[in-house]
Amino acid sequence: MRKPVIAGNWKLFKTITESVALVNELKPLVAGNQGVEIVVAPVFTALSRVGDAIKGSNISMASQDCYWEEEGAFTGEVAPKLLKDAGCSHVIIGHSERRQYFGETDLTVNKKAKAAIAAGLSAIVCVGESLTERESDQTFNVIETQIKGGLEGLADLAFTHIVIAYEPVWAIGTGKTASDAQAQEVHAFIRQLIARLFGKPVADAVRILYGGSVKPDNVKGLMTQPDIDGALVGGASLKAESFAAIANF
Ligand code: PEP
């Protein structure tokens, strides 16, 4: 049995005060939910305070990115061990917005995933095709390249700390969700690919999340698909009520 993960990506929203208020509002709404791993990903500046606020609760915290070096002359970067120090247990790596606007590549995703795992964090590794790629029947090729590149050289054992998020770029922040069948088709492809690359036990155990306009009213259909093990949620994670409704699907 794979424990579902529902993760909220707060992107570049909310001050420290607003972030702490949001997580404090969320806590009682999900307090009874032991069946799901619930994760929130605030901006860097709010991590430490949100980290304090979630202590003793069933909510975990992710950062939205990390660097791959532990320390050094890398102005502006944040190392995985510092994220852990701030209270993170997870880090989102390779989100399509980072690939699109900040030059993230499969190689940097790979370096970050390895560094995150070495520091004891779980890596939520994002993959997904653009609309043009889907329309030109490139979806499976794109996903295969991203998975092979992003997870290259990872030992089977590292997979206890890897979560994959399939996020079709055309469905992120657009209000367009992939249909349950479209999402399931790609999730099944990813699981078969992981089985081919890392073996069936790893593939059977790895959690594969869907992301792209997940809302309280479409989460159930997605979660009933056999290869969908949770959701990475953007917009709907910014309100405690809607995120709780998704987490408590
Ligand atoms: C995301 O940020 O990863 C995401 C899926 O956003 P949204 O839910 O707003 O589409």
Describe the secondary-structure layout.
Blueprint: E1 5-9, H1 16-30, E2 37-41, H2 47-53, E3 59-63, H3 80-85, E4 90-93, H4 96-101, H5 106-118, E5 122-127, H6 131-135, H7 139-150, E6 162-166, H8 180-198, H9 200-205, E7 207-211, H10 219-223, E8 230-233, H11 240-247
Parallel strand pairs: 1-2, 1-8, 2-3, 3-4, 4-5, 5-6, 6-7, 7-8
Helix pairs in contact: 1-2, 1-11, 5-7, 7-8
The structure holds phosphoenolpyruvate.
Give an overview of the whole structure.
The chain is an alpha/beta fold and 249 residues long. The protein is built from 11 helices and 8 strands. Helix 2 (47-53) links the parallel strand 2 (37-41) and strand 3 (59-63). The longest helix has 19 residues, at 180-198. It is globular and about 45 Å long. The protein starts with a strand and ends with a helix. It binds phosphoenolpyruvate. Phosphoenolpyruvate is lined by residues 9, 11, 167, 172-173, 211-214, 232-236.
The level of helicity is 40-55%
Structural class: alpha/beta
Rounded average pLDDT:
97
Terminus-to-terminus distance: 17 Å
Oligomeric assembly: single chain
How would you sum up the major sheet?
Answer: 8 strands, parallel, barrel
Q: Specify the overall morphology.
A: globular
**Tally of strands:** 8
The residue ranges in which pLDDT falls below 50 over 5 or more consecutive positions are none
Number of DSSP helical runs = 11
Bound molecules: phosphoenolpyruvate
Order of strands, main sheet, comes to 1-2-3-4-5-6-7-8
- Beta strand %: 15-25%
Order of helix and strand elements from N to C terminus: EHEHEHEHHEHHEHHEHEH
Our Rg estimate from Cα atoms comes to: 17 Å
